[in-house]
Amino acid sequence: MKVAIAADHGGYTLKESVKKKLESLGLSYHDFGTYSEESVDYPDYGILVAEAVARGEYDRGILICGTGLGMSIVANKVPGIRCALLHDTFSAKATREHNDTNVMAMGARVIGPGLADDIVELWLTTEFSGGRHAARVGKIADIEKRFGRDAGIGGC
Ligand code: RB5
Fold first, then answer.
1. How far is the CA of 36 from the centre of ligand 1 (A)?
2. Fewer C-beta neighbours within 10 Å, C or N terminus of the chain?
3. Model confidence pLDDT, tens digit, residues 82-94
4. What region, left, alpha or beta, does residue 146 occupy, with left being phi > 0 and alpha being psi -120 to 50 degrees?
C-alpha cells in the first residue's frame, strides 16, 4: 500500500510522528510537506495529497492540521475523495468498513501521538465491508456527478 501524507504548520510535528508509525508498519509513503513549523496555508498541502490519491498514484492519504477540519474540507472537494476526520478508534474502523474512505484527517491540537498512531494503524488495516455499504458509497459518487463537471459547475 502506498500512502501520501501532508500537514500544515499546526500538524507538522504530528506528521513526523505518524511517519515513524508508517515505517514501523513497513509502509512506503511520500511526504508532500510542509517541512517545518513555519506558517503555511493548509489548502495548499491538502490538495496535493487529495489529488494524488484521486489520480490513483497513492492508495491512501493522511492529512494533519491543527484541528483536521480544514484539511478534511479541502480533501472532500476533490472528486473521488472520501475523507474522514478522525479522533477516535471506533470511527477509524467504522469509516473504513462503511464509507471506504481513502483519505483521513486528524487535528494535532486535538489528539496526542499515541492515539494518532492507533487511529492510523486501524484505518490503514481495516477492509471495506462492501455489500449494502458499496451501494451507499455509490450514491455519494452519484451526488458528486450531479455537482461536478457533468452538471456544468466548476468545469471549463
Ligand atoms: C492553522 O492555524 C489552523 O487554522 C489549521 O491548522 C487548521 O486547524 C485549519 O482547519
1. 15
2. C
3. 999 999 999 999 9
4. alpha
Q: Is the pTM of this model over 0.85?
A: yes
Catalytic residues: 65, 98
Summary count for the chain: helices (H), strands (E): 6, 5
The string of pLDDT tens digits covering residues 4-49 is 999 999 999 999 999 999 999 999 999 999 999 999 999 999 999 9
Domains with residue ranges and CATH for the chain = 2-147 (3.40.1400.10)
Atom of ligand 1 nearest to the CA of 11: 6
